[in-house]
Design a protein that fits this description.
This is Helitron helicase-like domain-containing protein. InterPro entries: Helitron_helicase-like. The chain is globular and about 90 Å long. It is built from 21 helices and 13 strands. 34% of the residues lie in helices and 11% in strands. The relative contact order is 0.11. It is α+β, with helices and mostly antiparallel strands and 602 residues long.
Length: 602
């Protein structure tokens, strides 16, 4: 059979160290190679996949990126300049960077700051919830983080932020915005009590940290100052009606990014008022009118929910943020259609890291994960709202015809015309799934059954990923880097498959990217091999697929990779913290006992 040239993924037999045989035990094929030798073996492979460090920087927004992420088309036309446009669209999006956090918060955010900082970073979501003005609606999955493994923030259903009144109902515990007004003499105890009522397991919070964060916010946050002023008026004038108007924004309003004045964020109104004149603002009054939902387009949407991420009351996304005009974009055809920043572009801009630039969406540990999930939910809500308002463009009136309605089982008149149909371009919609299914079936109809099923999994120990982390960070702290490195690695793998250097000429490739329980991405690839040039036999399959432990003497590199990524153990008394162990017992009983006997002695 013809020998297939190698490139990146299929290892080759290398005698890297003439003395490597001293590590091989004659009584067992399992070998304990030193860590330094293993690293040397990996780096000695001449065609291994290594993307380097993110050493390139966008000249407009200073976002760092890898060479493989460059815009290939624009780079080829730029006389040697490396161009990356996925952050600010070549300078069209220009938003001032965030200010450094207050000193007290900055010290707590330092991963190397000692036991107190480690405790704060582990419980940062709980401390943020203590000081949030709004509640976060959504079904948060708290069971996923039981046991070992990296922290994951997962929420089901629609996410929405709601705000109540200034004062709680009689005989009820104050929470959220009410804590800034009611019984502030016992504010620390009230905040901790409100949190434990929400989650009884949160009882190990530090009152000193709560006290320090409270003093910091009273000094720095203009929104807090407005609410404190309302508290003073209520204490001075008993029974007075007070409302706090948190100012919204229309498309033509000024964008506020600098250190805001309290009058730019909120206004304190004494006396009764009607809500009809303030439809774009958030009105918080002393009267309890129930929880009211906040629009994602309100500039204070994120500042009210994440007071620790935005300690100065920075305003978030609002409608009408204009593109930055420069010489390169004045003639862009897209400007004729739209000249304002979308929610997607605003969020994408902020999840790019710049050197020495504080970024609350990336550098605040577990709370940043929640903020990223929240930002993604904002994008979905914006897109769904657009689809609902443009059903006529999607020919929904034709789909909702009487004949189609009866065919779908709608026999009541009030059932017709009530549905909102999602287009196939909306990821996850019914049409999206059906369209991709039909595309896959069409490929099978043209080329027959697929020949190879390949699974490609993200490795959190990739050197590119570790090299991009800031001191003190763990890979699970930066899902943005994980996804970007995985995408580049996937593109390399697909290029290798299409090149024909691994399995021969390829007729078609179909793949689907998924995320595992602990948020690491992986992809399933179906591959159709061109059979006119090469017949697939049992010998071909044996050459491609192996279930053996390679000989460490003949092929140390392949042995190192198989032992690191494909083998289980040790477990049992050798390692009680192994994932297969639970309460001192093996999850699969005698099966793992057998595996440990065979390969676990290493």
């Amino acid at each position: 059979m013809e020998q297939i040239p190698q490139r990146r993924y299929k290892t080759m037999s290398l005698d890297i160290n003439n003395n490597h045989q001293r590590y091989v035990s004659r009584s067992s094929r399992m070998v304990n190679f030193p860590a330094e030798y293993i690293q040397h073996v990996k780096e000695s492979y001449p065609k291994r996949s290594y993307l380097g460090k993110p050493e390139y920087m966008c000249k407009h927004c200073r976002a760092i990126f890898w060479f493989n992420e460059r815009n290939k088309y624009e780079t080829s036309r730029s006389n040697g300049e490396i161009i990356y446009s996925n952050c600010c669209k070549n300078g069209k999006i220009k938003i001032p960077k965030f200010r450094d956090p207050p000193i007290y918060l900055k010290n707590l955010l330092n991963p190397m700051g000692g036991k107190k900082s480690r405790h704060f970073l582990q419980k940062i979501r709980q401390y943020n919830s203590m000081f949030a003005f709004t509640s976060m609606g959504g079904n948060i999955d708290r069971k996923i983080n039981h046991g070992d493994g990296p922290y994951v923030f997962r929420v089901n259903g629609q996410i929405h932020h709601r705000i109540g009144s200034l004062l709680p109902l009689p005989n009820t515990t104050p929470k959220f915005a009410e804590l800034y007004i009611f019984d502030t003499k016992n504010e620390i105890e009230n905040r901790m009590k409100a949190l434990t009522n929400e989650d009884p397991n949160e009882e190990d919070l530090d009152p000193d940290i709560v006290r320090g964060l409270q003093a910091m916010r009273d000094e720095c946050n203009p929104l807090v100052k407005i609410f404190r002023h309302a508290r003073d008026l209520l204490e001075e004038h008993k029974g007075i009606d007070i409302s706090v108007k948190i100012i919204g924004a229309d498309k033509g309003d000024r964008i506020q990014y600098e250190m805001p004045n309290p009058k730019d964020l909120a206004i304190l109104i004494v006396g009764d008022m009607t809500l009809e004149n303030y439809k774009r603002d958030i009105i918080v009054s002393t009267r309890n009118n129930g929880l009211r939902r906040i629009s994602i387009f309100h500039p204070a949407y994120v500042a009210l929910q994440y007071p620790l991420l935005f300690p100065y009351g920075e305003r978030g996304f609002q409608l009408g943020i204009k593109y930055n005009k420069n010489n390169n974009n004045d003639t862009n055809e897209e400007d004729a259609k739209r000249n304002t920043v979308t929610v997607h572009e605003f969020s994408k801009y902020h999840v790019h890291y710049g050197p020495d630039q504080p970024n609350p969406y990336l550098c605040y540990g577990r709370l940043s994960k929640q903020a990223i999930v929240d930002a993604r939910a904002m994008e979905d809500e914006d897109r769904l709202d657009y689809i609902a308002r443009n059903q006529s463009k999607l020919r929904a009136e034709y789909i909702q015809g009487i004949f189609d309605a009866i065919e779908k089982g709608m026999y009541e008149a009030n059932q017709i015309g009530k549905k909102v149909f999602l287009p196939s371009s909306h990821v996850g919609s019914r049409r999206y799934i059906i369209q991709n299914y039909h595309d896959g079936i069409a490929i099978c109809h043209a080329y027959g059954s697929p020949d190879l099923f390949i699974t490609f999994t993200c490795n959190p120990r990739w050197p590119e990923l570790l090299g991009a982390l800031i001191q003190g960070e763990q890979p699970n702290d930066r899902p943005d880097i994980i996804v970007r490195v995985f995408h580049m690695k996937l593109e390399q793998l697909l290029d290798d498959l299409r090149s024909g250097l691994i399995f021969g000429s390829i007729s078609a490739i179909l793949y689907s990217t998924e995320f595992q329980k602990r948020s690491l991405p992986h992809v399933h690839i179906l591959t159709w091999i061109e059979k006119s040039r090469k017949e697939i036999t049992s010998e071909t399959i044996d050459f491609w697929i192996s279930a053996e432990i390679p000989d460490p003497t003949i092929d140390p590199l392949r042995y190192v990779l198989v032992a690191e990524h494909m083998m289980h153990g040790p477990c049992g008394y050798k390692n009680w913290n192994c994932p297969c162990m639970k309460k001192g017992m093996m999850l699969y009983g005698d099966y793992y006992d057998l595996i440990y006997t065979i390969i676990g002695h290493q």
